[in-house]
Amino acid sequence: MVGVANVYKGKGAPRYAASVPAKEPISAPDEGGAPHSLRHVAQMAGVSVATASRVMSGSSHPVSEKTRELVLSAADRLSFEPNRLARALVTAKSQTVGVIVHDISDPYFGEIVKGLEDGLHAEDYRLFVASSDRDPVKELDYVRAFHAHQVDAIVFAASSLTDPTYAETLETLSARFRAKGGVVVMLSDHFLDGPRVRFDNRRAVADMLGYLVGRGHRRVGYIGGPPELLVSRVRLNGFTTAVAEFGLVTGPEHIANGGFTVTGGAAAMEQLLEKVDVTAVIAASDLMAIGATRQLLASGVAVPDDVSVAGLDDIPIAEYGPVPLTTMRVPTYQIGRNGASLLLEALAGRMPDDVILSGEIIERESVASLEKSG
């Protein structure tokens, strides 16, 4: 579990290097020595411990700006940092949020987490990010760990898994967490109830197929994600439904599993080349699309002159692959920012409305228009 933390600086006010009257000299702690306490800060600032506590905790209790400045300056001079765990015991709030992703190295999740962090940092929340590797046992362990560490909220940034035992256990753990006042937010297709930001994955794949059909492509293959993920099933459903709507002829041989990885995308493309004759391929993630493009080029197939390739996500490296990738942009950063807003509303006791976001096709160089449909 990777912690993403920032040094606490007090809520709503900067620290000033002002001159502070002290009742008696208080020196900064020696390196390796015992840290100063809130009592020392109060003594240096010439205020009560209660007043110093209100300033350092960001309390809404009225404190004059001059007093706030004195306390923050004293805290700076003494290198004082508040004990967040001790404050949590008093307020029943830890100001921490647990975030579960499937693969922390995937740029898709990096943008979502950045949006979350940017949206929550202003309210003095810290994130703890855990990568489950799509392992149901590991993901459930992280949920238990977040509960044990008394986070205020758990965010599922990734799609739910489809394992029945996992689903039943997660329902139980989430109910216990909520019963203790915790908030659960989903940022992808998920079976859990609660506030959610959802990208319309089904529509995104259908729109991308429509884009290809509009450019003359009638023989289209599909590279999907791991079948144990709900989002993979939703995106595949978008493809198969749109295939029927456009009157295309495809079968199981036109569909391969690429595991949401570059190597998986390459292997899936090799499989499709052996089974079907296509003019275009949709990959359900940019990483798989990049892998498919590499495999096509290695096989002597020109992209896009012989086979066009389209992706989904628009991760930062999409335009820097072997052929700049035409893809469906998923607003990952906005998913995170909207998730932060929903989370804060839920923590404030309100019931926020779900948010559904749509994508945008980004045209680059990996899709060709055919003179006539094939």
Gist?
The protein is an alpha/beta fold and 374 residues long. The chain has helices spanning 38-45, 49-57, 65-77, 84-91, 107-121, 136-148, 164-179, 201-213, 230-246, 262-275, 286-298, 332-347; strands spanning 2-4, 96-101, 126-131, 153-156, 183-186, 197-199, 220-224, 255-257, 280-283, 308-313, 326-329, 355-357, 360-362.
CATH class wording of the largest domain: Alpha Beta
- Major sheet attributes: 6 strands, mixed
Assembly type of the chains comes to single chain
Our count of domains comes out at 3
Identify the CATH homologous superfamily of the largest domain.
Response regulator
Mean pLDDT value: 88
| Succession of helices and strands | EHHHHEHEHEHEEHEHEHEHEEHEE
Query: What topology, given as strand order, has the largest sheet?
Result: 8-7-9-10-11-13
Q: Uncertain regions: pLDDT < 50 for 5+ in a row?
A: 1-24
- Helix fraction? 40-55%
- Radius of gyration (Å): 26 Å
Q: How many β-strands, per DSSP? A: 13
Q: Strand fraction band? A: 5-15%
